[in-house]
Amino acid sequence: MDSKVILITGASSGIGKSTSVLLLKKGHTVYSAARRTEKMEDLKREGAHIIKLDVTSEESASAAIRQILDEQGHIDVLVNNAGFGQYGAIENVSTDDAQKQFDVNVFGLARLCRLVLPEMRKQKSGRIINVGSMAGHFCEPHGGWYHSSKHAVAGLSGCLRQEVRKFGIKVIQIEPGEIRSEWSGIAMQNLCESSAGTVYSKGAEKQSRLYAFGEKHLATGPEAVAKKIAAAATCRRPRLVYRTGFGCVGLSLASALLPRRWFDAIFIRLFT
Ligand SMILES: NC(=O)c1ccc[n+]([C@@H]2O[C@H](COP(=O)([O-])OP(=O)(O)OC[C@H]3O[C@@H](n4cnc5c(N)ncnc54)[C@H](OP(=O)(O)O)[C@@H]3O)[C@@H](O)[C@H]2O)c1
Question: Using one digit for the tens of pLDDT, what is the confidence trace for 40-96?
């Protein structure tokens, strides 16, 4: 097997951790990165190289790429997976918090692309795998900053894909549906905190109850996304977009096919 050097961001839990485990099992050289390195001791035991990384810091991100290049001499695959949900009504989320959302989900992802591209261009090969979301295809109340960040990731991935193909670099977008991880708990905690005592609190409570139900009973395990990322990282002709996880096909289709008023009516009824 052709062993690859792979950097995975957001590897301390959920999709990033599962992807690290799968790619290690397949014999690749895996650099697993996140802020909470103490949560990656298990990956270290499996053979992962652990990197402390905050994707919002230029210094931290360039040190991570420098370390990989110093140790391996090249980098084959970047999996831009780090992300979180800054949920809250647009009226309630401060500009600072909105900026933090984009700093991680969009500018952090773009920063790592910029850092690996010169090396991948030199190699005339490489893959950048961006974890977007089904949230990049539709809208829901209280998800303004998260959804717009994932719409932005879809746009960036598409533009980048066209720009770098002539250098032998492939850009692939992953669009998970509802996946079991820490994501939902963090997003709903942000929603409840920002909505407490405001006119949005009733809707926020309904939404967090439904999300908790979804996380417990409907969400797909992160291993399903890990399999798609592994295929995107290693198969000869990867697809441009991979989708998996509860709701990803149904919701994207419904948003494309239903009249917008009908689609809005469902979410307004559910979450406001
Ligand atoms: N779960 C879902 O239903 C779902 C659906 C669609 C898309 N997604 C996307 O999938 C990706 C992975 O999410 P997940 O479901 O696996 O959630 P998760 O379990 O909460 O994992 C998120 C990861 O991102 C990392 N992260 C957050 N902020 C960071 C920062 N500033 N610098 C570096 N790492 C940071 C976290 O690590 P540290 O806190 O240790 O840094 C953690 O490892 C995200 O982009 C998410 O938006 C998730």
Answer: 999 999 999 999 999 999 999 999 999 999 999 999 999 999 999 999 999 999 999
Atom of ligand 1 at shortest range from CA of 9? 34
DSSP-derived letter for residue 10 is S
Q: What are the CA-CA distances from residue 107 to residues 63, 82, 153 (Å)?
A: 17, 11, 9
* 209 Cα: distance to centroid of ligand 1 (angstroms): 21
Catalytic residue list contains 211: no
Q: What is the dihedral of CA 135, 244, 266, 152, to 10 degrees?
A: 10
CA of 203 to the centre of ligand 1 (A): 24
Catalytic site residue from 31, 87, 146, 242: 146
Which residue minimizes the CA distance to atom 41 of ligand 1?
35
Q: Is the CB of 246 under 6 A from ligand 1?
A: no
Whole-structure pTM value: 0.98
Pairing of strands 241-244, 77-80: unpaired
Taking the C-alpha atoms of residue 72 and residue 116, their distance in angstroms, rounded to an integer, is: 13
187 CB within 6 A, ligand 1: no
CB of 144 shorter than 6 A to ligand 1: no
Q: Which CATH architecture does the domain made up of 5-271 adopt?
A: 3-Layer(aba) Sandwich (3.40)
Does any ligand 1 atom lie closer than 6 A to the CB of residue 190? Answer: no
Q: How far is residue 208 from each of residues 19, 190, 203, measured CA to CA in Å?
A: 27, 10, 9
The phi, psi pair for 256, rounded to 5°, reads -80, -35
Which tens digit of pLDDT belongs to each residue from 95-145?
A: 999 999 999 999 999 999 999 999 999 999 999 999 999 999 999 999 999
